[in-house]
Design a protein that fits this description.
With 153 residues, this protein is mainly alpha-helical. The protein is built from six helices and no strands. The relative contact order is 0.03. It comes from Formicarius rufipectus. Pfam families: DUF1151 (PF06625).
């Protein structure tokens, strides 16, 4: 007897309880019109409240009304990007010309300078791996030769 009184499915029971179309959300208390309750205010979205966002939105609406696509940019922005691109190309060309104008003598000096830097780095690495007593001994030799040269002068 008890089982026969239960509805066929849980869905039909939910439908009977909510005749408003199946809204799952609870109804807020402030709709009842209780004057003692403070009605909540909708929070402002800081992104939408920003001036730049509003200007961008206004520009998009105007472009849409004119029939311009989102892909097309304002004239000022296109001109500025064109100038930047031209400036970068010009700088690259100047750098390439400067490299071409180097004489063979300057190139050779640059290569030698790089080789000397590499040799100095390698010597520093070797000195770092040497035991400390060798480093101290080299320092002693340097000071002894300097004092010997001073006595001769």
């Amino acid at each position: 007897k008890h089982l026969s009184s239960l509805p066929a499915s849980m869905y039909t029971e939910i439908q009977r309880e909510r005749p408003d179309g199946g809204n799952i959300l609870t109804h807020p208390d402030y709709i009842d019109g209780n004057p003692d309750l403070i009605k909540p205010k909708k929070l402002l979205n800081p992104v939408k409240a920003s001036k730049s966002h509003q200007e961008l939105h206004r520009e998009l609406l105007m472009n849409h009304k004119r029939g311009l696509g989102v892909e097309s940019k304002p004239e000022l922005q296109r001109v500025l990007e064109h100038r930047r691109r031209d400036l970068l190309i010009k700088q690259k060309k100047e750098e390439e010309e400067a490299k071409k104008l180097q004489s063979p003598f300057e190139k050779e000096l640059l290569k030698r300078h790089q080789r000397l830097d590499q040799l100095e780095k390698e010597q520093e690495k070797q000195e770092d791996h040497a035991p400390e007593f060798i480093k101290v001994k080299e320092n002693l030799r340097r000071t002894s030769t300097v004092t010997g040269d001073e006595k001769a002068a």
